[in-house]
Predict the 3D structure of the following.
Amino acid sequence: MGCPKNKVDSDGMEMLLQQADLRAASNAARADVLIVNTCGFLEAAKEESIGVLQELAGMKRRGQMLIAAGCLAQRNGEEVLARVPGVDGLLGTRRWMDVMELVNGIRGNGGGKRRKLQRYSLLGDPDVSFEAAVPRPPVKAGSAYLKISDGCNAPCAFCTIPSFKGKLRSRPLEAIVDEANALVAAGAKELVLVAQDSTDYGRDWGEPNSLPHLLAALGNRTSSDLRWIRLMYAYPGHVTNDLVEVMASQPKIVPYLDMPLQHGDPRTLKRMRRPSRLEMVHDHIAKLRAAMPDIALRTTFIVGYPGETEEEFQGLLDFAKAIEFDKVGAFTFSPEPGTPSAALPDQVAEEVKQERYGRLMKAQQPISLGKNQAFVGRMLEILVEGEGQIEGSGDPLLLGRSYRDAPEVDGLVLVPGVSGAPIGSIMEVHINGAMEYDLVGESLLAETFVSKKVLDIGY
């Protein structure tokens, strides 16, 4: 559950379990071991994770093991055990590589399946470094996440991550390159680099500008089968000239950058303990667009932060309109226990948060539409992710992503009248339609799959 970083850890656990002669079960009822890799970032995510654990605990059969892993287990382990008595073990955020130690510990150091289970927990830092390479399962849909670091040094007043992830720990460059090559060999056409703060990579070694070197190594030392390298979670102030240069010069690095800014008014940003000098952000954006005119820029904002006045919210709207981000995600503020922001005065009413969220997204829609319309008439490569059907007619609809769209968070390129393209393949598409979040295209090679039809899908 939760973010792509959890997905990477889950993949690692899966492979370690398989190496220990366990195999995936077709459904929860048949499994001997149930593992929920939880999210504990926001209250809503915490409750969702608790709900899944309670559901599985309610259907447990005798001898079946239920493990709560990941962020919620690390952050609120005692609460998990209290609210879900059926949980047999806790596995912390930096202990996922010890999953078999936990499984064996719960079963009395490797006892048989019928042996009585006992509660067992592995939390905190492991004796061995989390940087050790772990095999990953076959890549699905041609895209894979690649985690380059864990933990975070940023002092954001609203964020709980440092409390359960700890300080930044960067993975060695060689380990990352080795894992990248293994993922490409397993079918990856795209690697999506993730971390809590990707641009802080190497700072814990005393080399804060190490990300450009890592990107260059990934670009130069992976096979031509790898087509796209995508960078997520850049921190404002850490987008250096070297980073802009390597992004612009390395063919495999797509012109796309996700830079979560959280707000656009300096007063709110100061209360958030975030970089508040907006001139710096404008400078970053100008350099990125000068070096890569077709770059797709994504950001996220929090609305309804404590003390956010109507004037400050208008500052956010004005900032978003001035920058014209290609992609914008937004969240309403959630007061997380233990964070400085939870104790701030002037908490914003929930109905005001929702109203401001709606206004922000409404303001972004014409910007997003205009950005998409600029690509009508152009050719784009897409990574094929799957197929669907056009509502009403039932005609086939191919689903893919261009370099402008990160998996799971951005839009799609829809290709009507085409089916049968291999998932994970790269296809060239002529863009002939645009909506607020998605593009519509026509494959010039569609006759190799099925006959094309001219279809009206409402754009």
In short: The domain at 4-122 is CATH 3.40.50.12160 (Rossmann fold). The first helix runs from residue 4 to 19. The longest strand covers residues 379-389.
